[in-house]
Write a structure and sequence with these properties.
With 228 residues, the protein is of the alpha/beta class. The chain is built from ten helices and six strands. A six-stranded parallel β-sheet has the order 2-1-3-4-5-6, sandwiched between helices. β1, α1 and β2 form a beta-alpha-beta unit. The N and C termini lie far apart (57 Å). InterPro entries: CheY-like_superfamily, NreC/VraR/RcsB-like_REC, Sig_transdc_resp-reg_C-effctor, Sig_transdc_resp-reg_receiver, Tscrpt_reg_LuxR_C, WalR-like.
């Protein structure tokens, strides 16, 4: 850490053992002062209002108020406090909402003390505090080819979200849930949730109906149909 006043940090994590371990680790680092710890997002927002820390190390999956919503509220109501996500999740459904909510850093929980300290310094200096793994994921996303607009209509049917359209298109292409998860960089459980949601919205009973639905609404092209 650089010289000057200590960086005042709040740690937010719903797992007591993990939270206490992070607090203990930060206590060993010079130039960092842990001023509070929170067991959920709601408590994190309250501590920020009371303590005005420089940084919140924020877990994502927490009860009452998750890390994304807590980050959004902190950055809106307390712009002097920055947020660095510290989580086990690196899928797109975790990463991008957190960054869009205002997090300036994103680390995984295998980060060591030096990585955390460096991310805190980077964020407080106006830079992004991202682990190398997260930087690679962002570069992959930016470099990925833009999907053809013909694969989904401007207004998806039955109120489907853009992600649900992607999922049903991949179902129509014959991909299994694990294959869809790998393609979209999300968990298999998240794929199942999207499938259940789109089945409910579209009144579908099984994957065969989902395939016909995708073809009928132009969400996917039947085999052998020329896209040119």
């Amino acid at each position: 850490m650089t010289g000057g006043a200590a960086r005042r940090v709040v740690v937010a994590d719903d797992q007591t053992v993990v939270r206490e371990g992070i607090v203990m680790l930060l206590g060993l680092l010079p130039g960092i002062e842990v001023v509070g710890s929170a067991s959920d997002g709601e408590e994190a927002v309250q501590l920020v209002a009371e303590l005005a820390p420089d940084i919140v190390l924020m877990d994502l999956r927490m009860p009452r108020c998750d890390g994304v919503e807590a980050t959004r509220r902190i950055r809106t109501d307390h712009p002097g406090t920055q947020v660095v996500v510290l989580t086990t999740y690196v899928d797109d459904d975790s990463l991008f909402p957190a960054l869009q909510a205002g997090a300036r850093g994103y680390l995984t929980k295998d980060a060591d003390g030096d990585e955390i300290a460096r991310a805190i310094d980077d964020v407080l200096s106006g830079e992004a505090g991202l682990s190398p793994r997260i930087q690679r994921r962002l570069l992959e996303r930016v470099a990925a080819p833009t999907p053809s607009p013909r694969k989904a209509p401007v207004e998806p049917p039955d109120g489907l979200t853009a992600r649900e359209v992607e999922v049903v298109r991949l179902v129509a292409e014959g991909l299994s849930n694990p294959e869809i998860a790998r393609t979209l960089h999300i968990s298999t459980a998240t794929v199942k949730t999207h499938i259940n949601n789109l089945f409910g919205k579209a009144g579908l009973r099984d994957r065969a109906q989902a395939i016909h639905y995708a073809y009928r609404h132009g969400l996917a092209q039947p085999p052998g149909e020329n896209l040119t």
